[in-house]
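Archive entry: two folds, one per protein. Generate the first.
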Amino acid sequence: MKSQLENILHAVQQDAGDRGLARLEDNLISRSKGDFENACQSLATGTGVVIFTGFFIPTATPPAPETDGPLGALLIARTLLSLGRKVAITCEKSCLLAFEVSLQYLGLVDKIALIQSPIETSADYAQRFLSQLKEKIGDISHFIAIEKCGPAHLSASIPEQNISAFLDATEESSRGKILTMSGKDITPYTAPIHLLFDSNFCNANNITSIGIGDGGNEIGMGNIPWKVIASNIHNGAKIACATTVDYLIVAGVSNWGGYALASGLLLIADRPSLSSLDSETELEILELMVKQGGLVDGRLGQRIASVDGIDWPIHVSVIDYLAKTLKEKA
């Protein structure tokens, strides 16, 4: 079992987009060692699960959420559903249509709750939103953020020995803001769901948090020291997210991290035959999300059926490997 989980994780941690996930010996992958297996084990004993996604690309033509995140979120949701769990997907209004058409295509409109993440913040944002989520699916044991950008560091979260480097590498106007990989501020377009991932809030509500990311600016990357992200990732000093989670999954593409989590969960549950991971189906969903849902390739900034500017056959090779691993276990 352990070796199969390790093989799955290795397959999705190839840095196809050359983000710099393991540029140095001390890196994002080494710093999250063990979290993948622990995340799978934890999720296997969960009840209700809420999956957060949606990453807005303001420089795209036209500006829109990207294709990385939604595909992985949807597979996690379908996998949890196959195991009899209550599950909800939540995203900003701009991303809802992509999920609506996909759930309709899969015949899951009435089985997976789709909830809009409110952008407007308030003093009790986290508690109010949690109450809304519980009204939809009941008891909640896990939050999963996949390709969900969170706020960059403030001086207060930086160790004293790194403060000087932090101040030199960042601008005051960008600190604490939600930033794209290129440093564009997308705070106005992003629901502040990082407030729900606050460790004290999760602990008080008995919720385990899982983060999935591929670039350093996603919720969960706060688990990795600022200096490590700054050293490995281009522009990492500026965009590194400060929000922590219980378990962080670092992948070459966030969708791949979602595929890995779903696959690992089925292995842990000893139900690999329930997998719905299939490269042809993923492409069909991707095309729907782009053509009818308006999503864009986050790296290319175009409304085309691709993810992170990576050739689709590379995605297929990862998907097919995971599917084959599960099939051999079934």
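Generate the second and append.
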Amino acid sequence: MNYPDIFFLYRSRPSQAGMTTLLVVGFMAVFMLILGTITSYAFQQAKYGRALFAREQALHIAEAGLENYRWLIAHNTSAGGTMMTTGAGLSSLPSTYAVSDPEGGAVGNATLSASPSLQCGAVQWADITSVGRAATGVGFPQTLLARYMKRSVAEYAFLYNSMVWFGSTNTGVGPYHSNSGMRMDGSTNSTVTAGVSQVWCDSTAASLGCNGVSPNPAAGWKSGVFGNSLTTSLWQYPVSTVDFSGMAVNFSSLKGYAQTAGVMLNPTSVTRAGVTQGSSFSSVSASDTKGFHLIFKSNGTVDVYRVTATNGDTIYSYNGVDGWRYDYPVIASESLVANVSVPSGCTLIYSQAKTWIEGTVSGKVTLIAADTGSYVPDIMLNNNITYATTDGTTGFTAVAEGSLQVGLVVPDTLSLRGIFVAQTGAYGRDYYYPSSGYLPAEYYQYNTRSRLYVTGSLVVNQRGGLCWVSGVGCTSGFLARTNSYDRVLAFSPPPFTPAVTTDYSLVLWREQ
């Protein structure tokens, strides 16, 4: 018998048992590591889920706070009705709103604050901030910002009170609306709406060209929106009308603001915040042959000229009354009154005379051309109107008590930026009879122009014309027209821009 071999076998068994123990311990360690990882992941996911739930709740709580604040502004009478006129009382509204679930009790709280935007001492809109915190997770707040204001006319590319005809060479970007019916032969990328279900169309000049000659349809009743456009899927009629009388600018109030804190173009003088600029002069008001010529500068100032003489011509115009009349579109002589800086706290210019405008606008400026007497002045779009910046910090609104007329002597490609409003009149470029002999011969080269670009909004009471057709194509006016609305200005328009509603609402809603 070989004892060493037996001894060897006897001693090998404890070694194998130890190895098994090590393996078991190793597997248990791996298992515990995996179990710990899974458990930690499960806890983290549960924590993350609770955080998501708290954030979601906080978002709804913040939104509830906005709605509550809107209700308080609309119904609070302790401020004497001045809350959305002067801003008084906005900061005294409750700053905390407790949100409760009828079945589950307290949900959380919203902390609120409001900051009014003031111009000339009057509120333009109020920015409301709402911070929501859920009771289940106060460490996960959500912040909402919203603007409380009346909806602006800047939401439209074109807004008409009367019937209107857009020709085949018209290109539109943004909503088009007419209270009284529309013929649309051009192209658009947004809604085209009318406030009527049907419109009568015949061959008269005041109608929409229904004479049965291709491509014109035969006379008769047409849909509220009709025409040869390819974008008929965007047409809607009838829809609610826009109240032009309700959105009319209160000229008396704006005149008072301009006299006190803005720029006032009086018949015989120019003032800035009540201080006379330059020298006084003979009256330029109540006359189509005189007025003011404004050239806006990129540095925020305006060159104010008084127009002392004009050249006239025989024109054809709708402008409320179809037919020929004599007009004075071209400045013959003028003199500089002053270079005026527009006050930052009241960027309002009020003119009591016919006003020619052009140049580069800086900041947000509003021009009013109105006369509290019997004379109804027009605004002449005399040259390019551009912006110093296009990031939303610049905007221009021009409101004419009468009409908006595109001048005769303008560039072949004319660019206009802004919100243009003809409160009682029309928008267009009148038909100039070629070589009538009333104007110097060199002016007739401007009879037809290639293209008109308008970036912004056109708000017009009466129908006008930009392309006057005799035979084939335009014989006077612009051969092509492109209109694009400025969406940024819909939420932050220049001061006292007309609104399409009388009610305030929350716009520009965003999460911070």
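Annotation attached to the second fold: Residues 6-11 have pLDDT under 50 and may be disordered. The two ends are 91 Å apart (CA to CA).
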